[in-house]
Amino acid sequence: MGAALVLVIVAIAVNNTWLLMFVHVAGGAAWTIIDLFLGLVLGPIMGRMSIPARVEFTTKLMPKVLLIMPTVVMMTLAGGWQLGTKLGTVLTGNPLHGWVVASFIVVGVMSVLALGLLEPANIAVLVELKKRRPKPQVIEHLMKRFIYCAGILGIMQVATLVIMTKLGAG
Amino acid sequence: MLGDRVSATSAHAETHAEPVRDPILDRKYPPVTALCMVSLALIVIGGIYLSAHLPQHVPLGPAIGLLVASAALFGVNVFLLARVRDFAWDRFFEVGKWSLLAYAIIGAMIEYAFVRNHVGGGALVVLTLSLAVFAVHVPTLVGFTVARYYDPEDELQAPSGPNGDHQ
Question: Global pTM?
Fold first, then answer.
């Protein structure tokens, strides 16, 4: 995470188009792929696992997700905003401005879900796991949020792909 | 290992014929998460509205309306939560304060970016207030989600070992 943070700071400080593009695309690709993989591949598999197996799998997965996701989101958004400023697509007069606003809306929906539902659940699961006797029922109850959010996040990520490829094509 | 402990607990629970539902899950709370989500959505919509217009002139009416609605809804939420009996406030503040610190830093960084990008006047005031409202939402949600599953029995069961294993 430290290396990613340094890379983002350097990219913004030197304001180099290729470096900003690299940070934005690398972060965005990782964000989209991880979200879709978790939601569409791992999610249904976890849904068919027994509760103890699901809880154990979540126990191993959760700390990594809690570290990786904020990193890739930070890379994508910080790099993307700086890139939009440099290319002029954040200005209302730009012909692609509508697509940029659409990407704001998609990010807005994802951030409300991530900050309002998923992050509190992530932290509550970790707090539960630190207890001497973690309660599988509590973890299971919290994990339902991820199942509910997976579909919406998947749709938002597909929308992101449409918007970003349109912006890339000009 | 954490996972082993969870598995052991789960396996222990599964050996009993009837699944016993934890009373912690059945406690009734006001719709804090739902209200906070709506309130958070309002402030995010305001942020999208403003950032879609900046750096050009922004009509502030809609953003102010969304900000006031979000703050009012948040106030209602805090009021409802304050009326809950036997809520684990210690736990709420213990977790919420660190989350608040993180979001205060994030908010300050975003504010710095606005100032650096020459956002000023009414737009900066509305954005600053929106950031302040945003920065208290997530700590509230995190604190509430952790505190609602707090069970005083856990503290009683966990002897303090040499490893400081319990919290």
Answer: 0.76
